[in-house]
Amino acid sequence: MKKEQIPNLLTIGRILFIPIFIFILTVGNSIESHIVAAIIFAIASITDYLDGYLARKWNVVSNFGKFADPMADKLLVMSAFIMLIELDMAPAWIVAVIICRELAVTGLRLLLVETGGTVLAAAMPGKIKTFSQMFAIIFLLLHWTLLGQVLLYVALFFTIYSGYDYFKGSAYVFKGTFGSK
């Protein structure tokens, strides 16, 4: 295997962890199965950092990676949040806000590329959002409820703030869309 392939293989691995994660939470509703799911989610989350780090370090950033890496992150996090609703560990309204923001920012990214080739890079609020979302999921699955809930509300705040920040910074793409001004 060539080292150039490793970041993309890590991304694919993250996607393949999702059905395993869902299966474990679906067939076993016990603290033990939640702990196993938390471990799987944590490993998958670590690959998010690792694939990007290796791609930049080895200068092997690819079009597949640019597309699949953020998609894998969103699929993993959204699947986990939906499962947390099923397990009554997260309020549906918070998960709805998070999922709507993720889809809206993904649409914005596509629009920016389509209209001018601009790539919307992850800003610090977005990185804090991702970090707090992932840790909220892990701590909730570990039944560290207070810390998990605090991180869930931190994630909610940064989800909304980073979404606002991305749209505010990209408002130029909507000029003239809603009338003349």
Automatic annotation (TrEMBL):
One of its GO terms (molecular function) is CDP-diacylglycerol-glycerol-3-phosphate 3-phosphatidyltransferase activity. Pathway: Phospholipid metabolism; phosphatidylglycerol biosynthesis; phosphatidylglycerol from CDP-diacylglycerol: step 1/2; Lipid metabolism. It is a multi-pass membrane protein. GO terms for cellular component: plasma membrane. The chain crosses the membrane at residues 12-29, 35-54, 75-99, 105-123, 135-161. Keywords: Cell membrane, Lipid biosynthesis, Lipid metabolism, Membrane, Phospholipid biosynthesis, Phospholipid metabolism, Transferase, Transmembrane, Transmembrane helix. One of its GO terms (biological process) is phosphatidylglycerol biosynthetic process. It is found in: Cell membrane. It comes from the Bacteria. It is an enzyme of class 2 (transferase). Its EC number is 2.7.8.5. InterPro entries: CDP-alcohol_PTase-I, CDP-OH_P_trans, CDP-OH_PTrfase_TM_dom, CDP_ALCOHOL_P_TRANSF_CS, Phosphatidylglycerol_P_synth. It catalyses: a CDP-1,2-diacyl-sn-glycerol + sn-glycerol 3-phosphate = a 1,2-diacyl-sn-glycero-3-phospho-(1'-sn-glycero-3'-phosphate) + CMP + H(+). PANTHER family: CDP-DIACYLGLYCEROL--GLYCEROL-3-PHOSPHATE 3-PHOSPHATIDYLTRANSFERASE 1, CHLOROPLASTIC, CDP-DIACYLGLYCEROL--GLYCEROL-3-PHOSPHATE 3-PHOSPHATIDYLTRANSFERASE-RELATED. Belongs to the CDP-alcohol phosphatidyltransferase class-I family. This protein catalyzes the committed step to the synthesis of the acidic phospholipids. This is CDP-diacylglycerol--glycerol-3-phosphate 3-phosphatidyltransferase.
